[in-house]
Design a protein that fits this description.
Layout (H helix, E strand, L loop, with lengths): L5 H8 L7 E2 L10 E3 L5 E6 L1 H20 L10 E7 L3 E9 L10 E5 L14 E2 L1 H6 L8 H20 L6 E8 L9 H4 L2 E2 L5 E3 L7 E2 L5 E2 L5 E8 L7 H12 L11 H16 L25 H6 L12 H5 L5 E11 L14 E7 L2 E4 L10 E10 L7 E8 L4 H4 L3 E9 H7 L1 E7 L7 E10 L10
Parallel strand pairs: 6-7
Antiparallel strand pairs: 1-2, 2-3, 3-5, 4-5, 6-8, 8-13, 9-10, 11-12, 12-13, 14-17, 14-21, 15-16, 15-18, 18-19, 20-21
Helix pairs in contact: 4-7
């Protein structure tokens, strides 16, 4: 790409370029970091295992970058091996900086998606997950850009999970510009900065969005964000697996930084959605709840007709929550109604399963509340999942689980069954009422309603 052109690399790092600068780091790896003098590139020593992992990844990595031009994965213009007499072989990578060297970064955060012991220590300049949340930060982006950022990050995380890596970070840098204050641009117009924070020229357009060659303008144009996925050469090997077992025994199997690659990717995707990206403001007006059975409802009770909205009535079609959760194609609105005759996973006398239901698509997961001590739970709970183009060939997975409240003693939650539904069928069907036997278990039935709401015109989609 433009950031890693050979001529740029040679100018910054080649013969005759200024001396490199040593980079201070909080890394526990003991590796060395160097900046090019213009701070456009970073040289980092890596272990042999990390170098071999990147070497194996390179063909798929290049294909992923080409297929996903806005990928947040850091760009590697070089992977090198050198032999030093008396010191043996050493490996190092060359990476393009996530930041723009012409723009001062006022705040930096290293976000993994874990909130266990993820707070910067005194004297550390780079914040972590807890610092990001505590300071109330969000990437304030217009709707279409927010959807694309979420979609690209999920594709990146899925790519990395496919190679069995974890412990990578989403590096976020924030550059703040002073408002122009002119009558035409004003505080809402934003400013293109000269790097110090002083306005140099006004941004064309007030809405915010992608900035070339790198960065994201905040809605309103006053903040410039730099975002990249870094440090993704950590495999989930025996050492990391042992660490995960230890954290699980301590009751932190879900929130510790060290989890298996798929769980790590899912958790980071959810953290980005819940805590990194801004949420659209929703109106506070009350809305009549939808009947979970929709056009399949057979209840004739007039009170039910008043209490619940049905197809054809105002308020039945897509609401603001559906649009705010939307992907590039639309939203799946899943109403978990109830389950019947579930298996009992609790062996203690008098105890029954504590079931909850989960909807999964790609790396997204949404769950209902738990109904304690009940083999016939009723949830009547609505969850929403974004649908992107990449999801159309996948399955929506609906699953039921028994929650183990004390995981340090009982382990992970117990599986009570699943259903797999092709997304392409759901998109074509519009609305599907599910009443099917759960798979993978001896008994149990799940009732749910699934509706596909396409991205509305005016929100970056064609609408119906």
């Amino acid at each position: 790409g433009r950031l890693t052109k050979p001529e740029l690399l040679l100018k910054s790092l080649g013969k005759g370029s200024p001396k490199y600068k040593v980079m201070s780091t909080n890394s526990k790896s003991g590796e060395f970091f160097f900046f090019s003098a213009d701070r456009k590139f970073i040289i980092k020593t890596v272990s042999k295992d990390e170098a071999m992992l990147l070497y194996r990844m390179l063909p798929a990595y290049q294909a992923h970058i080409k297929a996903t031009p806005r990928s947040f994965c850091v760009r590697f213009p070089g992977l090198h091996r050198v032999e030093i007499p008396g010191l043996g072989e050493h490996y190092f990578t060359v990476m393009a900086s996530v930041f723009d060297s012409t723009h001062k970064v006022h705040e930096t955060f290293d976000v993994k998606g874990s909130t266990l012991n993820r707070k910067a220590k005194e004297g550390e300049s780079c914040g972590k997950d807890e610092d990001w949340v505590d300071r109330g930060h969000r990437l304030k982006l217009p709707g279409p850009v927010r959807r694309e950022v979420r979609e690209v990050h999920e594709q990146d995380a899925e790519f990395l999970a496919g190679f069995g890596v974890m412990d990578y970070s989403l590096l976020i840098g924030i550059h703040r510009c002073e408002p122009t204050g002119d009558a035409e641009g004003g505080a809402e117009g934003g400013a293109e900065c000269d790097g110090s924070g002083s306005p140099a020229r006004r941004v064309l357009g007030r809405g915010g969005g992608w900035r070339e060659p790198s960065g994201l303008w905040a809605e309103g144009g006053q903040d410039l964000y730099f975002v990249g996925l870094i440090d993704f050469l950590i495999a989930f090997g025996l050492k990391k697996q042992a660490e995960h077992v230890l954290r699980s025994a301590q009751g932190h199997s879900a929130d510790a930084s060290c989890v298996d690659p798929k769980a790590y990717a899912e958790r980071q995707v959810q953290f980005v959605l819940d805590s990194v990206l801004s949420k659209p403001e929703l109106s506070t007006g009350s809305r009549t709840p939808r009947c979970p059975y929709g056009d399949h409802c057979i209840r004739q009770n007039p009170q039910h007709k008043e209490e619940c909205c049905h197809p054809g009535q105002p308020g039945w079609e897509a609401d603001e929550e559906d649009q705010s959760a939307s992907g590039s194609a639309g939203t799946l609105r899943i109403t978990f109604i109830k389950a019947r005759d579930l298996e009992n996973a609790d062996m203690a006398p008098g105890d029954l399963s504590d079931p909850y239901a989960t909807a999964g698509l790609g790396l997204q997961r949404c769950s209902t509340h738990t109904v304690d001590n009940n083999l016939n739970p009723e949830w009547n709970c609505v969850v929403r999942l974004a649908v992107d183009g990449a999801h159309l060939g996948q399955e929506l997975e609906l699953s039921v689980w028994d929650e183990d409240h004390n995981r340090s003693l009982q382990g992970s939650d117990d599986f009570l069954g699943r259903l797999g539904l092709p997304v392409a069928r759901l998109v074509k069907g519009g609305s599907v009422l599910v009443k099917e036997k759960l798979q993978g278990v001896s008994k149990g039935e799940l009732h749910a309603r699934i509706e596909f709401i396409p991205l509305a015109a005016g929100n970056g989609g064609p609408g119906r």
